[in-house]
């Protein structure tokens, strides 16, 4: 089974630098695991690692799509798995680094998204209740978990049921097991320290030209509808761009949203992965991590 190192944790904790050091020490290449850093034009608001800080380590799934293009978990799953296979085939260690938890889980575990590959017609002459009743007849277990008014989900579940394998049976077949040999390391620290690092990052972003970056790419209503604008670091500018907020309002919103996001990230990692947790600001923390990685690499799968 292919070995994959995963480096997770909250925003602003130092994941990227740690991943680069791991790649240099263990002959690895890095796969971006952040849903927003796939966009080429957007660097400041996403706190994207600079070319200099990459230190010559090859990064995959970074700067791969224009900011006007939607990028989703289904595509990430496919492209991340392909990158893992490519890196491993060349005798290198795949290192997935990022904080978008559901992207990581989708790529590294036995999850499938068959509904995304189905062609779904919407019979506009049928009501939500009628469609839900049909689903109840074909796949009652799925119908019980989907509200009748969620027409899109009802239609997809119907399409799966009509294709031969109901959604409920497909989900049962997915055991939630990793498809690779994982070593997960999560960086975490005291809340006050993390809050300070978040504040420093936001100050650096604002001083580094974030407002100009936002104005360049998101001044029009059309651009503000792009998926890339929904990420923290950009969506907070919407009222400002429309003349309804100040830059100080934007900065405060960035602080609040980033702190909230960091808490959600930590909660997610605690519940979704078995991991080695380290505080990157404690003495010997990284040495402990490097030793654990080295021992894991020597294990037979």
What's a quick, concise take on this entry?
The chain has 301 residues and is an alpha/beta fold. The protein has 13 helices and 6 strands. It has a 6-stranded parallel β-sheet, with helices on both faces.
Low-confidence stretches are none
Main β-sheet, spatial strand arrangement: 3-2-4-1-5-6
As a percent range, the share of helical residues equals: 40-55%
Our count of helices gives 13
Mind explaining what this structure looks like?
The protein has helices at 15-26, 51-54, 73-89, 101-108, 128-138, 140-145, 151-163, 167-173, 191-207, 210-218, 238-241, 247-272, 285-298, and strands spanning 3-8, 28-32, 59-60, 93-97, 181-187, 276-278. The chain has 301 residues and is of the alpha/beta class. Strands 3-2-4-1-5-6 form a six-stranded parallel β-sheet, sandwiched between helices. The mean pLDDT is 92.
């Amino acid at each position: 089974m292919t070995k994959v190192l995963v480096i997770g944790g909250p925003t602003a904790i130092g994941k990227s630098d740690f991943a680069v050091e791991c790649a240099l020490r263990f002959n690895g290449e890095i796969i971006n695991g952040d849903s927003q850093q796939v966009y080429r034009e957007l660097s400041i608001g996403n706190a994207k690692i600079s070319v200099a800080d990459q230190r010559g380590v090859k990064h995959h799934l970074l700067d791969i799509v224009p900011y006007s293009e939607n990028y989703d978990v289904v595509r990430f799953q496919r492209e991340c798995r392909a990158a893992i296979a490519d890196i491993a085939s060349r005798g290198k260690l795949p290192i997935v680094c990022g904080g978008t938890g559901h992207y990581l889980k989708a790529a590294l575990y036995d999850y499938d998204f068959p509904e995304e590959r189905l062609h779904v017609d919407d019979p506009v002459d049928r009501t939500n209740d009628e469609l839900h009743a049909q689903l109840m007849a074909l796949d009652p277990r799925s119908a019980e978990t989907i509200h009748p008014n969620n027409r899109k989900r009802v239609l997809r579940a119907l399409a799966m049921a009509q294709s031969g394998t109901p959604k409920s049976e497909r989900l049962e077949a997915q055991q939630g097991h990793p498809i690779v040999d994982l070593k997960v390391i999560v960086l975490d620290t005291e809340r006050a320290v993390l809050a300070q690092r978040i504040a420093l990052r936001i100050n650096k972003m604002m001083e580094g030209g974030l407002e100009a970056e936002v104005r360049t790419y998101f001044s029009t209503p059309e651009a503000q509808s792009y998926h890339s604008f929904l990420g923290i670091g950009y969506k907070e500018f919407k009222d400002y761009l429309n003349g309804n907020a100040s830059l100080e309002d934007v900065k405060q919103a960035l602080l609040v949203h980033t702190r909230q996001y960091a808490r959600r990230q930590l909660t997610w990692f605690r519940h979704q992965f078995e991991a080695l947790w380290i505080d990157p600001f404690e003495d010997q923390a990284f040495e402990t991590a490097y030793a654990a990685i080295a021992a894991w690499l020597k294990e037979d799968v």
